[in-house]
Amino acid sequence: MQFKLFGRDPAAILYGLQSLLAVLVAFGMFSGAVADYTMVVANGVMALIVALTTRPFVVAAITGAASTILTGIVAFGIPGLTFSTEQQGVLIAALTAVLALMLRQNQEPKETAVTSA
Predict the structure, then answer these.
(1) Which of 1, 2, 14, 52 is the most buried (most CB within 10 A)?
(2) Is the separation of the CB atoms in 76 and 88 below 8 Å?
(3) Is residue 33 part of a domain?
């Protein structure tokens, strides 16, 4: 079963948001930087939603989503919430370790031709 948000594929929602932002930038209602920031964070949030609803749980998808969001925060900045590149790396590493430890107990390797030989 494919994940739907508001009855739509998440990519379709992102395409719609991108189109709306393009119109707003073209008419001077938003700057290009604001549109860029919005799309980076929207992509990260959508990736996180999809990753959290995917079964079995995929640690790489969640860390990828978090990395995208943190990259947007680092690149564009949010007043009162800024991370250096080093801090971003440490946060992603810590998130990966915590998720791996949490999920490891619920996962086991599949039997393959190599492991059964």
Answers:
(1) 14
(2) no
(3) yes
For residue 113, tell me if it sits in a domain: no
Task: Render pLDDT for 12-27 as a digit per residue (tens, 0 to 9).
Answer: 888 888 888 888 888 9
Give the model confidence (pLDDT) of 25-64 as tens digits.
889 888 888 888 788 888 888 888 877 777 776 777 777 7
For tokens 């995208």, what's the residue? 68
Query: Within a domain: residue 61?
Result: yes
pTM here?
0.59
Split into its structural domains, the chain has a count of 1
Q: Which tokens sit at 53?
A: 């609803």
Are residues 18 and 11 in contact, defined by beta-carbon separation less than 8 angstroms? no
Q: Which residues contact 7 (CB under 8 A, 6 or more apart)?
A: none
In this structure, are residues 65 and 44 in contact, taking their beta carbons and an 8 Å threshold?
yes
Structure-derived torsion over alpha carbons of residues 48, 51, 57, 61, reported in degrees to the nearest 10: -80
State the Cα–Cα distance between residues 106 and 110, nearest whole angstrom: 13
Residue 74 lies in a domain: yes
